[in-house]
Prior knowledge:
The complex is a heterodimer. Chain A is an alpha/beta fold. Chain A has helices at about 10-20, 25-35, 50-60, 75-80, 85-100, 105-115, 125-130, 150-160, 190-195, 205-215, 225-240, 245-260, 265-275, 280-290, 300-305, and strands spanning about 40-45, 65-70, 80-85, 120-125, 135-140, 160-165, 170, 180-185, 200. Helix content of chain A is about 50%, strand content about 15%. Chain B folds into three domains: about 1-80, no CATH class; about 105-190; about 275-440, 3-Layer(aba) Sandwich (Rossmann fold). Chain B is extended, with a radius of gyration of 30 Å.
Amino acid sequence: MPDSEPQSVAQVRQGLGEVGYLADEAAALVSFLAQRLGKPVLVEGPAGVGKTELAKALSRATGRRLVRLQCYEGLDEAKALYEWNYRKQLLRIQAEASGEAEAAEGSWERTRGDIFSEDFLFTRPLLEAISADDPVVLLIDEIDKTDQEFEAMLLEVLSDFQISIPELGVIEARTRPIVVLTSNNSRELTEALKRRCLYLWLDYPSVERELEIVRLHAPELDEGLARRLVEIVHMIRQLDLKKPPSIAESIDWARTLLLIGADDIDRETFESSMSILVKHRSDIDLVAERVSVKLGDAADVHDRG
Amino acid sequence: MSTTAASLLAFFEDLRSEGVAVGTSEILDAFAALDEVSWTDQRDFRESLAATIAKSQEDRRIFELLFDRHFFRAAETEALDRGIEDERFEGSGDRIDLDELREAIRRAIIEGNDGEMRDLARLAMTAFGRRGERSGVIGVDVQRIRRALGLQARGRRDDGDAEALDPDRVRQFERYLRRELERATIERTGKLPPSRPLAELDRTLPTSPAQDLTAVHRAVAQLKRRIATLGHEQRGRRRGRSVDVRRTMRASLETGGVPLNLRYRPKRPRRPEIYVLCDVSTSVSSASVFFLSVLHALHDSFRKLRSFVFIERISEVTDIFEHERDFRAIAQRISSEGGVADVSGYTDYGRVWLEFLTEISDELDPRSTVIVLGDARTNGREPHAEVFAQVAARAGRLFWLNPEPRLYWNYGDSVMAAYERYCDGAFECWTTRHLENFVNVVAGGIPAAE
């Protein structure tokens, strides 16, 4: 797909749909605005609702390369922005020293100029996204895992799309990247960061939309069965679990049902494949107790059918 | 354009007065965004504003509340300015047949016809207004009219043979009614009712435990992260780090024996050991639901956590929290199995400290944190502050969360002052905001402004 600015929200939505991401109104609108206004998008929501997937889909739909920065505690600029390649610099100095020992005059000036050039720079994701020749989608994943200091460092990148390297000067973006930040809301982000972003809250989809998603990713699954599957997943999400099942897990479950060739979800099928949805000891107990009793035994199903 | 802009700016001003941080840059963004979407589509308009203005779920909630109120009010103000009065139904009130109206409304609700419901709400309001059944309080009037129409939100109508009405739609109809009544009041008095700030309760702690549980869980998850990463934060600091000579020498092999990369000894974060004591007596009964949900969330986050509830005696409830997930079941088991009330059912702090100290004193060490949730009302009994001091001395840190405003501390039988001086911190705490504030302070941050 050619990379040009989208003309309407519907167009963005369709584009995302074509690459396998069914966006709701808000998500499509915010993606549209992000491209038109050139502003970063902050996506928040519970785990497993497709925050990261949105960025990937945007990259596919716009034909841009995806540059991903996975955040974690203790992430610092050497890992996110750039780092000088000390070893290469050292080698360079040693090579110089042995080669032209006699021409010591003025050689230091030259060496210094040499070793602080882009050849000796490790580019990390942020610098890579900024300095890329082709337009990219920059995904900063789980920004809430980092420290506040790191957020402050991001501000320059996000508002001006530039990075200052003391030895080299300012590197400005050649093309404007689409920036997507995701957060699981495990801590409140700073006002300064939020101020620079568009905000999108993604929540678990409605039954109808999740059904569409499951059908898109597991088209061979019988429609009635898919609906029942989604309804059960929704039932599980109602419970107070440590980790409610994500959309990806519903899809995995749908594929599992296909593999084992189930034609209805009875208690036995459910209990044997439940571990795909629920992944905590105490959650499994709870789900077994609350949900699987509601599903009939195999015998009942035959009676019903 | 300029009137729309002015109206939007007034809306932003409203948002600010409700505590949403709307900066100039947000406003510029909002206008830029509105340039890109069509203004006539209400959903796009609303979403664009929300994406640029409301930067958290909480903000979004306030935004939704205010959006309706503001743009409804904006339309009303304009109507007033131009002196428009709606004449459509004037004079027809006496002739409206009540039974017919009742039937028409019921049908509209069953069909879910929005426009019809809106019109009929107005008709109903006029009809009942004529019969002098206005109390002047809108909420009362809504219920009165609803009852007169025989709209049962649940179950069947009085005569029994009609179909049950969808409660959601009945509520929708009530909303229209409310709106019409507001409109009528505005018409009558010729001015807008004072726009009151959203009641504080409206957006702080929802009273039902199921709702605030998620909010409490989030605050506690933050607490966990802060405590768990206390060590990590110091990792980046240069001072106080010690060089690991062995690993540095080893790393220097790569660079020809020149130790270019210094390796440091990692700092191990200390493992938090937490003791929580929670008052569940009647004087804090309104707060104890909140406290129990805090406990519930703490248990989700910390492994080395022991919790106790107390009234006259103290009792450990760690097991209950570990085996039960459902909040309501926990609350029930604690009240039935806790065994914390003796005869009177009044809190006896002095005795609680004594029991706590004998039971647990060997295990308290400088690494442990004790958190007390209670109002420090001793009912005139001996507070035994000296025993409390011993607890404080043994534990590394001791915090007190009090469900009463600071203003009430030390009035009546509250002996907060006696305990407070042994605490590392005492906080008022009855909303999640307070809880977050506490988390900030514990993690060494600056307390959030109230």
